[in-house]
Amino acid sequence: MNSSVMPMVYFVAPNAEHFDDIQAQLRLFSFDCQVFTRNSAILAAMHTTPPFAVVIDEQGLSDVSAKMCVPLISKLSKGPVIFLSNAHTIAEQIDLMRDGVTDFLPKPFNSQQLIDRLDSLQELARPDPYRVLVVDDSEAVARWTCGVLTDAGMHAKHIQNPFEVILQIERMKPDIILMDVYMPECSGDEIAKIIRQNKLYDSIPIVFLSTETHRGKQLMARSMGGDDFLVKNMEPEELVASISITAERYRQLRRWMTRDRLTALLNHTNIIEELSREVDRAHKECRLLAYAMVDIDHFKMVNDRHGHMVGDRVIKSLSRLLRGGMGKPNSVGRYGGEEFAVILSDHTLMRAAQKLDELRHSFSQLIQISSDAGEFHSTVSIGVAQLQDGMTAQQLIDAADRALYQAKAAGRNQVGLAT
Ligand SMILES: Nc1nc2c(ncn2[C@@H]2O[C@H](COP(=O)(O)OP(=O)(O)OP(=O)(O)O)[C@@H](O)[C@H]2O)c(=O)[nH]1
């Protein structure tokens, strides 16, 4: 793991004891951490290298109280300021928020809770720009539209030829299509109808952009598969607001349809669809592809001993580790209860096995917390297989499954390779 790209978390506390474990746990999830006990040291560090987040203990520093240091640290902070405290009244929390605190965590805090919070804050910190596909025969109109959307931080792409639309949807995976109504080759509603033929694309919002003000014609176009109708030459702010609302609604809907609720990973159906696409691509372009099944060991025992909620947390910690380890958001999915699927594009069997073995080791080092039984560790078994000539996605899954079975039979907590 390259420490230079790991987001840094500064801890502000009166002493540095007990932080070794937290540091080790954060590192497993690709966060670096540094502890400060003196006011001058934290202020100097905030000046020179502002971290991704600061975590301030309610006891403050060894030489300054929390009340004194919070406003200064918050002013220098470019990211979240998390305050660790026992119970605080709402009035006290509001005071702290006015001083710059953005988040609160209860004490005694555990690294899992903190990682959960850092994880969601990190997602908020780098939102994925909306992708907008603009289909318009007029170069000038499209240039203006793309310019407005790009200035608003979106990723906009223009195509003049409506017949390229399917190809571009496949390539760009737009969150919304902005479609001209009248084009020389065909009309926007005809293209919308073609797009809606494909089950994969039938929920992408299509917004018509036209000078058409006739209500009857607008409604007709919407009945052909358009979701909204915007009139050309509208104010830029109105265009941006309209596109953002529709694109966000689509993203939420997609998240709900394609992602597993507990882990936010791709669900069973969608990870298999993703694998099928990768298998096709690998065969077509002669690329390497490996695939793995990851299964938590003796998970029934974890549930029986520590309860279902702790079991859920173990599942979440593994999913977060796999997602972080793979980098690409669509390469990991929840295959079933405590079983995960991992797609490793452009990996040989050995490279995939090595990477997965590092993740297996990291997972075994994670401290899992149970309220009744204290801390414990879990392990995973992994089966990995490589795509061979002519192999289907299902055959690849079966090969990885057999390798997983061998890893379980050989004692668990290991990576099995498909022969
Ligand atoms: N907490 C929790 N448990 C789950 C979830 N989905 C499945 N399980 C449990 O996972 C356990 C899987 O148990 P088994 O298939 O017997 O396997 P195992 O105990 O992990 O044993 P090995 O795989 O042989 O190491 C079952 O007890 C399920 O109830 C979930 O979403 N949350």
Q: Would you give an account of this structure?
A:
This protein has 419 residues and is an alpha/beta fold. The protein has 3 domains: 3-125, Response regulator (Rossmann fold); 131-258, Rossmann fold (3-Layer(aba) Sandwich); 268-417, Alpha-Beta Plaits (2-Layer Sandwich), CATH 3.30.70. It is built from 15 helices and 17 strands. The chain has helices at 19-28, 39-48, 66-76, 90-98, 111-125, 139-151, 165-172, 188-197, 215-223, 236-258, 268-285, 299-306, 308-326, 349-365, 393-409, and strands at residues 8-12, 32-36, 53-57, 81-85, 103-106, 131-135, 155-159, 176-180, 206-210, 228-231, 289-296, 332-336, 339-345, 368-370, 374-376, 380-386, 415-417. The protein has a 5-stranded parallel sheet with strand order 2-1-3-4-5, sandwiched between helices. A 5-stranded parallel sheet has the order 7-6-8-9-10, sandwiched between helices. The longest helix is centred in the middle third of the chain and has 23 residues, at 236-258. The chain is flat, with a radius of gyration of 26 Å. The two termini are 29 Å apart. The structure holds guanosine-5'-triphosphate (GTP). The site of guanosine-5'-triphosphate (GTP) has 17 residues, from β11, α12 and α13. Keywords: Phosphoprotein. It catalyses: 2 GTP = 3',3'-c-di-GMP + 2 diphosphate.
